[in-house]
Amino acid sequence: xxxxxxxxxxxxxxxxxxxxxxxxxxxxxxxxxxxxxxxxxxxxxxxxxxxxxxxxxxxxxxxxxxxxxxxxxxxxxxxxxxxxxxxxx
Length: 89
Prior knowledge:
Elements: H1 4-15, H2 28-43, E1 51-52, E2 55-56, H3 58-67, H4 71-88
Antiparallel strand pairs: 1-2
Helix pairs in contact: 1-2, 2-4
């Protein structure tokens, strides 16, 4: 949640934008973090801020660990497929 790519995924997910133009040049870990950020944005209410004053908010952490504990399990297949397709392009 603390990575730049996660935050970019949240921003893009909440804005309804597609993937960034340089997404395909990122490493796999960066792509995963971005995808996780997009999924977090889809699952957590918009009123919940990811960061405040450069720090991850307690509410953001709490929602990931309590309200959506299986978030990554539900999104793994979609993220793997997207990364696979991006790498093949």
